[in-house]
Design brief:
The structure holds two protein chains of two kinds. Chain A contains 15 helices and eleven strands. By secondary structure, chain A is of the alpha/beta class. Chain A is globular, with a radius of gyration of 20 Å. The chains are: A alpha/beta, B mainly alpha. Chains A and B meet through α10, α11 and α12 of A and α1 and α2 of B.
């Protein structure tokens, strides 16, 4: 077994009985024990549950009744995903003793696929407030340099995947919370189409912007995880009632003949990126062009329009969700969450409605600008990870985020590592596609990822 | 960025909301409001047709 197997790699070893799920799980637990004191990626470690899951998977595999590619694969869940009988805190004092009596829909689906649950992962408080140092648990740190920010809100998942503590995990994405940590931790993460993965059983932040999705070391591993997570759930009113295609069949089909649109004004003018991020985008475009894709420029509405719609909708919906506690137990939230959500309580209803109307306009404009285009490319984050103690409180309002447009439109988008910056931390490229074109996104991401050596390097994190 | 809304207006708005904040917290969050105002102005600046659907459609035949 290599030191840090991918899901696809481990699955082959498990299926051929060269690797035991129990052995694999114990190796993850040992690494968590050795290094997570520096990362803080776990809030709750469920070692006994994990070993029981692993023994059950091993029995199935040995009996020839394995459940497929995820059987025996150790993963963990962002701590806003409800887990029956296991504390689900949202990284908040407000839910410090909350133990759900049911799993989230996606947790059940991943368990049914045979995954081994190692525990619950750090998040920004209620998927919004972070990095915070005034909560019951410390914030997760970036494994490439623990003085730096792993981004959020799926911060624990990003850190744990990059550090090789888990082979994959779950995240949620309301304004960029899967793609941000994927970008800054140098992993792959996809925010699927709105409605593809049920949010039932997951602590909400914003009903109309929340998405659930997977994060892993490679694009292929994200495809494998999404295969298990996707599917209709009547308990989520936004859940799409449609067949889920096979996400791995065409993974290696390449990009020849595809038209990839570059939204240059997003990352060259609206929010100009660092030289390393720009170099990564240029490198990815060069790789796809050399593989037969056509690269064209696409002009969309200003990034700030998407930001305005996204933030006003998100913060107002978040306030509506938290209003009772914001009035009754304000100081039981961390400063970052409560201060940001206060703004949502002060925005006039008319402005919320204008944001919702603008969302429709932006969706129409995005469709209109992408006729004949298969996918869009821009940055995932503007630069390498900043120091964790230098993240501005209002940073997401000061500068428009590259991830917001695809929450506003609901289109699928993923971040893929595109190299390393001057500080030695990862940079990333973001790829988006039209609704329910996840298989195409995986093809494009996989084509770049396998053409470059970035997956050969892991954080040099030692005990 | 200096907010258009004055601090006293902002404070009155906070009090009206029912949230109980200290003066220090109000002053701190007022800074964030300064970043929110340009976003709100961007939303308001569009000259939308009166009939532009506000996206709150619902299906009267569907029970959730």
């Amino acid at each position: 077994m290599t030191a840090f197997p991918t899901i696809a790699g481990a699955a082959k070893l498990l299926a051929s009985k060269q690797l035991s799920p129990v052995e694999l799980t114990k190796s993850c637990l040992a690494r968590i024990d050795a290094v997570d004191g520096k990362l803080n990626s776990f809030i709750t470690l469920t070692a006994e549950r994990a070993l029981a899951d692993a023994r059950a998977a091993e029995a199935r595999i040995m009996a020839g009744t394995g459940r497929g590619v995820l059987d025996g694969i150790p993963i963990a869940h962002k701590d806003i995903y409800g887990t029956a009988g296991i504390r689900t805190t949202a990284h908040s004092k407000q839910l410090i003793d909350y133990i759900p009596d049911a799993d989230a829909f996606t947790v059940t689906k991943l368990a049914d696929a045979g995954t081994v649950m190692l525990g619950k992962l750090s998040t920004h408080e209620f998927a919004l407030g972070g990095p915070s140092f005034d909560l019951p648990w410390p914030p997760a740190r970036n494994p490439w340099n623990t003085d730096h920010f792993p981004a959020g809100s799926s911060s624990g998942t990003g850190a744990a995947v990059a550090a090789g503590l888990i082979l994959g995990g779950t995240g949620s994405d309301t304004g960029g919370s899967i793609r941000g940590p994927s970008a800054l931790c140098g992993i792959a993460g996809i925010k699927p189409t709105y409605g593809l993965c049920s949010r039932a059983g997951i602590q909400p932040l914003s009903y109309t912007l929340d998405h659930a999705g997977p994060m892993a070391w490679t694009v292929e591993d994200c495809a494998i995880l999404l295969q298990a997570m996707a599917g209709h759930d009547p308990a989520d009113p936004a859940s799409a009632d449609r067949a889920v295609p096979d996400y791995t069949t065409d993974l290696a089909k390449g990009v020849a003949g595809l038209r990839i649109g570059v939204v240059r004004h997003f990352h060259e003018a609206d929010n100009k990126v660092s030289p390393a991020v720009q170099a990564g985008i240029d490198d990815a475009l060069s790789a796809w062009k050399s593989q037969g894709a056509e690269i064209v420029d696409v002009v969309l509405p200003p990034l700030q329009d998407y930001q305005a719609a996204c933030w006003v909708i998100m913060i107002v919906e978040a306030y509506a969700l938290h209003e009772k506690w914001m009035k009754a137990s304000f100081n039981d939230y961390g400063e970052l969450f409560r201060d940001r959500v206060v703004l949502g309580g002060l925005i006039p209803a008319a402005d919320y409605l204008q944001a919702v109307r603008m969302r429709r306009e932006l969706l129409s404009a995005t469709f209109a600008a992408t006729t004949g285009i298969d996918a869009l490319v821009t940055a995932g984050a503007p630069a390498e990870a900043p120091r964790i103690d230098a993240v501005p409180k209002w940073g997401n309002l000061e500068k428009a985020s590259f991830t917001n447009p695809f929450n506003v439109t609901g289109w699928p988008a993923m971040c893929v590592c595109s190299g390393f910056g001057e500080g030695g931390l990862p940079v990333s490229v973001q790829i988006a596609a039209k609704p329910f074109q996840e298989a195409l996104l995986f093809r494009i991401g996989h084509a770049y990822e396998t053409a470059r050596p970035w997956r050969q390097k892991r954080p040099a994190l030692t005990a | 960025m200096d907010p258009f809304f004055s601090l006293s207006d902002f404070e009155a708005s906070v009090r009206k909301s029912g949230m109980v904040l200290t003066q220090e917290q109000i002053v701190e969050i007022y800074t964030g409001w300064g970043f929110m105002e340009p976003l709100l102005a961007r939303l308001r600046s569009k000259d939308r047709p009166r009939a532009a659907e506000p996206a709150h459609m619902f299906n009267p035949e569907q029970s959730l």
